[in-house]
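Take a look at the protein record below and tell me what you see:
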Amino acid sequence: MMQDLFSLKGRTALVTGGSRGIGRMIAAGFIEQGARVYITSRKADVCDETAAELCSLGSCISIPMDVSTVEGAKALAKEFAAREDKLDILVNNAGAAWLEPFDKFSEKGWDKVVDLNLKAPFFVSQALIGPLRNAAKIRPAKIINVASIDGIFVNPQETYSYAASKAGLIPLTRRMSLRLIQDNIHGNGIAPGAFASDMNMLASDHADRVAARIPAKRIGYDEDMAGVAVYLASRAGDYVVGVTIAVDGGVSLTTAIFEG
């Protein structure tokens, strides 16, 4: 029925990096559509606080964890399996950025970002494949990888490891999707543009200035991000596989907006 097309009632989701920013927007959207949502992030106090706040919308459970290592991914899967036997929706959102001039760009700035932005989505998905396959016995399970428009076009800022990791995540999503569709697990991606978050302080602190350079003439709202995530996670997105959707107000269509 059309009225149930975007419903997530009875479904279980896990959002990495779900305590703030894009992850929190997605988690809130899922909860409002009826899902039971687990969020994870490295800082336990922040993760617990966010889960408590989101419980005002519905069911939200905190599992603090650092997923930047394979051991962390496995530990998250173990903690999740102690609570649930199936996972309908996995959102690989945890991410980091690093800004440094080319001549001084450090190995730390490379490894930290690539490990979390590119390696973690693969190994978190691998660690949670059992619960995903259990869910997929009933209806398609979903994996949503959060990339960035910085993986689609060249941002003028010197965020080398961030750009490389987000660009790499898009074909990784396609490659994973082609394999996992065999298990009735549908993989897709989201490439956010300017949304107010701790990672994008420019959009947070200078929204009007940023908006002037966006074709849609505004930065993204929470519901813009929640809407596309709910679409991909719900029955509405069941026939979409291996696609990364830019949610950016048109920024990725042009580079002229960054001139001057």
Notes: The radius of gyration is 17 Å.
